[in-house]
Amino acid sequence: MSDEAGFEGEIVMQPPVNAGAPETTGRLTARFVRYPGCQQITLWLPQDGHSGYGKLRILGPGGALIEAADITARLNGRVQILIDTFPWPPGDYAIEIAHAEGWRHVLRLEKLETGAPSKPEPAPEPEPASGPIVYRDGAGNIIPDEDLALRARLQDRLVSQFGRHLEFDGTFRAGTITYVDGAIRIPFSHEMCGGGVHFSIDLPTPE
């Protein structure tokens, strides 16, 4: 359905793509706005429009050529392009912007019939869980996770088994030997001796 000036249908755009361009080439940015009796697409080039761009082409339903123009004649500033879509009848369209290096930006879109409901946006991808799953009972109380508890006990056992060590402070003549087992630290004083005792370690008195 149309009036004397154009067509009120909404436009649904696909994500912009690059055809034949290097992987590092930026893509178009596009935005559609619509008001009663007026609508347009605004494009932003990823680089200066005067640096190597050639023709802009707009293809309508059935591949009909709607517009072909030098990109420099369509620029609004250095990177922005404004396209009046109100005169377009419903159907499929493609906007192509060619570059001198042989590749082009492509934006495909569809103009809907006036009053047609907008196509729903795709559901966002669920964010990955940032921690373990928490299970709750019918009253909302957290159910203990036996798997996590077992894992914690095994971790403590590994730390105790492989984390035991001695730390030495001082010199070979005198100092401290500390036995370390996880959070447990027990210091033992030591010193060189004479006579029949060459080396002694003091055992702490049990508290």
Question: Can you lay out the helices and strands and say which pair or pack?
Answer:
Elements: E1 11-13, E2 17-19, E3 29-35, E4 38-44, E5 53-59, E6 65-70, H1 71-74, E7 75-76, E8 80-84, E9 91-99, E10 104-111, H2 146-163, E11 165-170, E12 174-181, E13 184-192, E14 199-201
Antiparallel strand pairs: 1-10, 2-10, 3-4, 4-8, 5-6, 5-9, 7-8, 9-10, 11-12, 12-13, 13-14
What does this entry look like structurally?
This protein is mainly beta. It folds into two domains: 101 residues, Sandwich (Immunoglobulin-like); 49 residues, no CATH class. 11% of the residues lie in helices and 40% in strands. The chain is built from two helices and 14 strands; from the N terminus they run ββββββαββββαββββ. The strands form three sheets. Strands 1, 2, 5, 6, 9 and 10 form a six-stranded antiparallel sheet that branches. A four-stranded antiparallel sheet has the order 3-4-8-7. The N and C termini lie far apart (94 Å). The model has no long low-confidence stretch (mean pLDDT 84).
Number of domains: 2
Number of helices: 2
Note the gap between the termini.
Answer: 94 Å
Per DSSP, what share of the residues sits in E-state strands of 2 or more residues? 35-45%
CATH topology of the largest domain: Immunoglobulin-like
- The average pLDDT score comes to 84
Short description:
The protein is mostly beta strands and 207 residues long. It has helices at residues 71-74, 146-163; strands spanning 11-13, 17-19, 29-35, 38-44, 53-59, 65-70, 75-76, 80-84, 91-99, 104-111, 165-170, 174-181, 184-192, 199-201.
